Amino acid sequence: MKFTLLDREKIDHWKALKRYLTIALIIEFIILCIYTPYASSALNITENIVSHLHHWIRQKEDKFIEWTMNVYEGAELVNEKGNLCWINIDNDTYKNKAWHSNDNSRGKINKSNLLKLIKSVLELQPALVVVDVSLRTKETLDSDFQINYLAKYNKKEIPIVLTGNFYNFDIEKNFNEIKSIYWALPTFYQEEDGVIRRFKLWKSGCPDTGDRIIPSIPLLANALVKTDGCEAAKECDFHYPTSDCFALSSNMLHRIIYRFPWKNADNSPSQLKVISAENLKGNKEQYGEKIKGSIVIIGGSYQKSNDFHETPLGEMPGSLIIINAIHSLQIEGANKPFPLWAVLLILTAIVFLIAVVFSQFGSTKGSIISSAIIGSFSLIVLYIFPDTLFIFKNGVPFTFAIALSIVGILGCIPIGNVDPTNKEKQS
Questions:
Q1: Residue 258 in this model has a pLDDT that exceeds 70
Q2: Less Cβ crowding at N or C end of the chain, within 10 Å?
Q3: Which residues contact 310 (CB under 8 A, 6 or more apart)?
Q4: 3-state secondary structure (DSSP) of residue 360
Q5: Which sequence spans correspond to the domains of the chain?
């Protein structure tokens, strides 16, 4: 009887191995090609198919990375750099009515108190300050008062990154006249399930601003402090940046590696120090060492802020998402991508192992056993590299995602009956 994909002929293990291995290698080649920017046109594959395949593989990659982030939650990793400090306007701080704005029902912060807090932080000489509390409304900014205030108390010209919605470029122009003040956006991307996993490096400016871009807070903060891999690509005025100002030139969605949890904040790695804004008041000297030289983020986690979002580590205030995104770029800069030849070598070895399993146990059992082997292999990698950033290298999660994708595809292709207990009659 001649073999067709729809037949369930009785075949020996060797013939099954050759068939599974051939098909698995073809699948590996197609996936790798499609996942490169130039491949869809080279292979003449429709954009719709490419999009669905990207989405499918990315889901598997997301699950692997999110599982890894939970395993590593709170762990101190070797070679992990970062010096971050969160001045948290928490519930205890917001209980003090001095922090309430006139429109208390909307949970806004009193701007005068906020400016005093910024002044206190600047006096302790941080490397940079990110203010994740809006200093303006759509109608007015009280710009003269705030510009003069920040200029007066920032003698050392420590960079201050303000978040804004860019309602009024004239107002920003006034702010940009102070060398130390910059504007950026929290460019986070909420996916279909409501979880924030990624962010864009920048947004394009309005048509009348030419080639100007609006950088994300993580990108601008790391560029200003010259983090490895995120430094400026050339001499550039970050008040009016363009896309070629930054070493990171791709504006694709960047994954956030969440290292700092919210519900279990005391279990955070040592790269992050958390200080309640209420405790900082009148106790500046006590926290001076934590703030000096750090990237400081001033933001709120009080309940009325309504600034909470779903993440792979659970619900988290927006300020802490910014902190994790800033740290993700620091990890990316310190963590060289996994070499392509290594990805190909490891993936081909895994594909061969998958083909052997399928040839011995058939599609159903083979899928289950192969998935278990891949999971066990990932645990072995975690055991061998327990305190390093190896598992977060670009290419490692992708390798596991492709391996699981190949298992899923092979499980749907009838190669032949290789289960010796199957008594199916042959034609």
A1: yes
A2: C
A3: 193, 194, 195, 196, 316
A4: helix
A5: 13-74+337-410, 84-334
CA distance linking residue 420 with residue 121, whole number of Å: 72
Which amino acid, residue 30?
A: I
Highest mean pLDDT among 18-22, 36-40, 227-231: 18-22
Distance between CA atoms of 364 and 285, rounded to whole angstroms? 65
In sequence order, the β-bridge partners of residue 314 are 311
Size of the chain, expressed as the number of residues it contains = 427
The whole-angstrom separation of Cα 183 and Cα 206 is 15
**pLDDT surpassing 50 at residue 320:** yes
What does the alpha-carbon distance between residue 367 and residue 361 come to, in Å, rounded to a whole number?
Answer: 9
Summarize pLDDT for 368-422 with one digit per residue, the tens: 898 888 888 877 877 777 666 777 766 677 788 888 888 888 888 766 555 544 4
Closest to 305 (Cα-Cα) out of 285, 319, 291: 319
The β-bridge partners of 212 are 242
User: What pTM value is reported for the model?
Assistant: 0.79
User: For residues 426 and 10, is the Cβ–Cβ distance under 8 A?
Assistant: yes
